């Protein structure tokens, strides 16, 4: 039995391709990879230079499941919604079709143009979905009673301070994938990478007021420049 396996392997080995790639294949792979990198940097980098290094967040679109989970946590809510870093506009468009008056803040002008066109092609009026090329860290969010954020774990604490300082008491914040450290969540939807977390600002404020050593809970730690 062992002999026959060896024979099969030996015979098969004769027909296996050699590991040396054809120069043309290598060249094409190089060109494709360089092109992909160029495309990625085109979408991910513009506008980033002015954002401090520790607050930089790259572009990564929400999955369908994540968008659905976000919308689940906004059920029963109405009014104005801000998506912080709106990317290609998918979350804003989903929220606008659920009746919210949405603003997507996005620092990357290419993504802003793309999202505006997508809204236009889908027939969404600008009263329902507006895309603004603006750094949300430098934006006063006090007029929004709903906020969604799919960003990065490293910025959630600073963002939490900003939102606590600016949002009205009746605001709800939905964090996608990355929860706010130290905030008590109202509910969550989904699991793993698609999980989303809802927070009611009034509950977060009263919870943090009771915590003796949360320095930033109710005082302005984040200063807009
Ligand atoms: C992880 S992506 C999420 C995109 C979109 N919200 C979604 O769910 O598909 C984060 C987005 O935030 C944008 N962004 C990062 N920092 C920003 C800032 N300071 N102001 C506005 N947009 C920002 C990035 O360009 C990127 O498009």
TrEMBL record:
<feature type="transmembrane region" description="Helical">
    <location>
        <begin position="24"/>
        <end position="45"/>
    </location>
</feature>
<dbReference type="GO" id="GO:0016279">
    <property type="term" value="F:protein-lysine N-methyltransferase activity"/>
</dbReference>
<comment type="similarity">
    <text>Belongs to the ANT/ATPSC lysine N-methyltransferase family.</text>
</comment>
<dbReference type="GO" id="GO:0005739">
    <property type="term" value="C:mitochondrion"/>
</dbReference>
<keyword id="KW-0812">Transmembrane</keyword>
<keyword id="KW-1133">Transmembrane helix</keyword>
<keyword id="KW-0949">S-adenosyl-L-methionine</keyword>
<dbReference type="GO" id="GO:1905706">
    <property type="term" value="P:regulation of mitochondrial ATP synthesis coupled proton transport"/>
</dbReference>
<dbReference type="InterPro" id="IPR026170">
    <property type="entry name" value="FAM173A/B"/>
</dbReference>
<protein>
    <submittedName>
        <fullName>Adenine nucleotide translocase lysine N-methyltransferase isoform X2</fullName>
    </submittedName>
</protein>
<dbReference type="InterPro" id="IPR029063">
    <property type="entry name" value="SAM-dependent_MTases_sf"/>
</dbReference>
<keyword id="KW-0472">Membrane</keyword>
<keyword id="KW-0489">Methyltransferase</keyword>
<dbReference type="GO" id="GO:0032259">
    <property type="term" value="P:methylation"/>
</dbReference>
<keyword id="KW-0808">Transferase</keyword>
